[in-house]
Amino acid sequence: MGLRAWTGQPNGSRGDDPSLMLGVMSVPMTPLDTLAWLLESGADESIGDTPIDRFTVRPAPPPAIAAATPAAAPVYRAPAASALKSASPLPTQADSDTIASAQALAAAATTLAELKAALEGFEGSALKQNCTSTVFADGNPASRILFIGEAPGAEEDRQGLPFVGRAGKLLDRMMAAINLDRSSAYITNVLNWRPPANRDPSPEEAAICLPFLRRHIELTNPGIIILLGAVAARHVLGYTEGIMKLRGRWLEYRVGDVMVPVMATLHPAYLLRQPAHKKLAWRDLQAAEQKMITLGLLEKHGSIG
Hints:
By secondary structure, this protein is an alpha/beta fold. It has a domain at 92-294: Uracil-DNA Glycosylase, subunit E, CATH 3.40.470. It is built from twelve helices and six strands. A six-stranded mixed sheet has the order 1-3-2-4-6-5, with helices on both faces. A hairpin with a 2-residue loop joins strand 5 (250-255) and strand 6 (258-265).
C-alpha cells in the first residue's frame, strides 16, 4: 500500500531511508517497525493500493484526444451591388414613359375626386386590364388619420373598396380597439388594382402607381400615417428592411414642409395566418393611439393600457 508522508528532507536525500534516519543501519527494520516510523512521521492517509516509486521516470501520459471543433457558423455577406442591380432592373423606356404620364396626371389633380377620375381613366398599368374595379379609398379623408395597405384582393376588386374581405374585417376590429372606424379614419392602398392571385407587386407595377399614391397623401394631408405590411412600408418609405424590423418604430414621411409621423405594423392578412403576432400589432396600435391623442387627432375614450 502506498502512503503519503512528509519527512522534512529534500527529495532524493539520504534522509528518505528510515533506517538511516534512525541510525540503525546494522539493525534491519521489520515491516511493523517501518509502519510505526511512518505513523510517527505523520503518514496516516492511504493514496493507493500498490507502492509507487516516486524516483523513477514514468512515461508521459498519452496526449488527450482533441475535442472535435464545431463547424464555423455561416457568415452572412451582403450581396454585391451588381447582384442588387440585377435583382431590381431599371425601368425600361416604356415604363419610364408610363411613370411620367402617371406623374403628370397625378400632379394635375387638385381634389380627391379629380385624382380618382384620373386613376379610372389611366391605362398605363397592365394590372388594370384584368381587374373589375379601380380601388381608390374608403373612409373619411378629413380625419387626417391615414391607413395604407398593399393592394386590393379578390373581394376588394369586386366591391371597388379597400379592405372589405376577411383581412378588412380584422382591420375594422383593430381600428375599433383604438376607438376608430371608417367614419373617423381613411384607408387606401399602394396599388389601386389587384395583382393576379394576390401576389406581391413587381417594382415596375408599384412605380407606376406611386405618383397617384403620393398625390393622394398630399391631398388628404394626414396628421399620422399607419402602414399595413411590408409592401406598404417598402414603397411608401423606401426601406428595404423587413416589416419585423420596421414595425413599432416611429418613422417620418414628408408632406410639403411637414414631417408626418408614420407607424408601420403587420398587415391584417398576415395576422390571419399568424395570429400569435396579433400582440405585436396591438402594441403598435396602442402607440399610434397615444400619438393621435397627443396630436389632437383622436379624443381619448378611456385607457389604452
